[in-house]
Structure formats: C-alpha cells, structure tokens
C-alpha cells in the first residue's frame, strides 16, 4: 500500500513570500489532516477534511493560511505571506474514517522562512 | 536528517532493558489514545492505540496502559533495541471535538 505522499520535502523562502505544499493521501482515505510541527513540539492540527469538506480549521491562521481539497483526494496548503514563525515541518496525514481510526503520516515538508 | 525536538524530555535506557514512557493527558472526556513514534526526518508512525473502555492493550513488544483516574497513559517497550531510538508522542482524541491532540513528546535513546 502506497503511503501518504508530500512535496516538496524542503522549502526555503523569504518572509512575506508565498508557498504551497501538496499532499496525496492513501487511496480511499476519506479524512485528511494538515499538521504544523515546530521544532521541539508535538504536531498541531491546522485543518481536517472529511472528503472535500472542512471538519475543523479552528487553529488555522486564516489571515495567511489556506487549504483546499477540491475533489476529495489531493490537498494543498498555502501560506501567504509567510512569517518567520511559520518555520516548521508541515505534515499531512490521512485516515479511513475520522480520528478514531489510525492516521498515517507523510514525511512532511520542512519550511524555513528567512 | 535534522532531529525533531531538540529540547524534549529524554529517556535513556540500556539495550535489552524495558522502556517506560509516560504521558499525562489533558481532557477527562478523551476517549481514544494513540502512541506515535517519530524518527529523525520522518513523519509520526502509529505504534498502538487504546480506547477509554480499556485499561491495557498489548502489541508486539509494546504495551499501553491507561489510568483514567489520574489521566495517565504509558507506553512500555520490552527488550529495547537500537531501532527504537526516536521521539515518542502520545495523542488523545477529544470526544465530541473529533480532534487528535498531540503531547510534547519524549526522546528515547538507547545505550549500547
């Protein structure tokens, strides 16, 4: 079974620039998550999709972050404009049906904002 | 790859010994708990889960214990091996919110 695919693996941008991350979940997984992991901390949920609908985006900084999952499969997470404190690893995960089932994580995208 | 969690609590054990990693969770209404293992440069990997109607669950070389009275979760790893070196996170599902919340994590290092 193919895992969760994310790209790019690494990205370095200057503050105030924009950046986008892409995620392809495991085939058939209805639930998709984006997490932000700052160095030294546990992952923090940014947004959760069920198919192409948003279940939870309460911790997404909506003034600069946006995410979409138009066809209920792939997803993109965008930051515009980026700030220094956005430097983190952005993890995508997917599960068959919600948080009470095992979530599989991708390798993440490491973002450095300079 | 770059290490995840440079300032995490650390547990050092001798190879072959048993490891016990502890976690205090925040919400008494949480009904589902997961332990994840995260190696350097990789995403978290599922180890074992437990639901709130259970006190103990065993897997291959791992056991999770849940004490709901004191909101405490532990992960026991038997006969610790070098490949067990990683950061371990507990995560809880906030019942009703359907949101998985991760703890800070513990770095496990293995001494030869």
Would you tell me the overall average pLDDT of chain A? 93
Order of secondary-structure elements of chain A: EEEEEEEEEEE
| Helicity level of chain A | under 10%
What would the principal axes of the Cα set say about the shape of chain B? globular
**Uncertain spans of chain B, ≥5 residues at pLDDT below 50?**
1-6
Mean pLDDT of chain B: 89
Question: What oligomeric state do the depicted chains represent?
Answer: heterodimer
Give the end-to-end Cα distance of chain B, rounded to a whole number of Å.
22 Å
Q: Round the Cα radius of gyration of chain A to an integer and report it.
A: 13 Å
Structural class of chain B: mainly beta
Instruction: Count up the helices of chain A.
Output: 0
Please report the distance between the alpha carbons of the first and last residues of chain A.
37 Å
In short:
The complex is a heterodimer of chains A (114) and B (112). With 114 residues, chain A is mainly beta. Chain A has no helices and 11 strands.
Can you offer a commentary on this structure?
The complex is a heterodimer of chains A (114) and B (112). Chain A is an all-beta fold and 114 residues long. Chain A is 0% helix and 48% strand. Chain A is built from no helices and 11 strands. Chain A has strands at residues 5-7, 10-13, 19-24, 31-37, 44-50, 53-56, 65-68, 75-79, 88-95, 104-105, 109-113. In chain A, the strands form 2 sheets. In chain A, strands 2, 4, 5, 6, 9, 10 and 11 form a 7-stranded mixed β-sheet that branches. A 4-stranded antiparallel β-sheet of chain A has the order 1-3-8-7, with no helix packed on it. In chain A, a hairpin with an 8-residue loop joins strand 9 and strand 10 (104-105). The N and C termini of chain A lie far apart (37 Å). The mean pLDDT of chain A is 93. With 112 residues, chain B is mostly beta strands. Chain B has strands at residues 10-14, 19-24, 32-38, 45-51, 56-58, 62-67, 72-77, 86-94, 99-102, 106-111. In chain B, a hairpin with a 3-residue loop joins strand 5 and strand 6 (62-67). The two termini of chain B are 22 Å apart.
């Amino acid at each position: 079974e193919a895992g969760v695919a994310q790209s790019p693996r690494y990205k370095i941008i200057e503050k105030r620039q924009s950046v986008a991350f892409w995620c392809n979940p495991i085939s058939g997984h209805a639930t998709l998550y984006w997490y932000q992991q700052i160095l030294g901390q546990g992952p923090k949920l940014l947004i959760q999709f069920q198919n192409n609908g948003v279940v939870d985006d309460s911790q997404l900084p909506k003034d600069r972050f946006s995410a979409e999952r138009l066809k209920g499969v792939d997803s993109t997470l965008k930051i515009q404009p980026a700030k220094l404190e956005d430097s983190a690893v952005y993890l995508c995960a997917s599960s068959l049906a919600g948080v009470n089932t095992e979530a599989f994580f991708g390798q993440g995208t490491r973002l450095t904002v300079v | 790859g770059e290490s995840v969690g440079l300032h995490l609590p650390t547990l050092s054990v001798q190879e072959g010994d048993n490891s016990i990693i502890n976690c205090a969770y925040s919400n008494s209404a949480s009904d589902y708990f997961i332990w994840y293992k995260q190696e350097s440069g990789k995403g978290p990997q599922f180890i074992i889960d437990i639901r709130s109607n259970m006190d103990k669950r065993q897997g291959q070389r791992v056991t999770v214990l849940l004490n709901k009275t004191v909101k405490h979760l532990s992960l026991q790893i038997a006969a610790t091996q070098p490949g067990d070196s990683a950061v371990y996170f507990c995560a809880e599902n906030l019942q009703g919110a359907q949101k998985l919340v991760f703890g800070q994590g513990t770095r496990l290092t293995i001494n030869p």
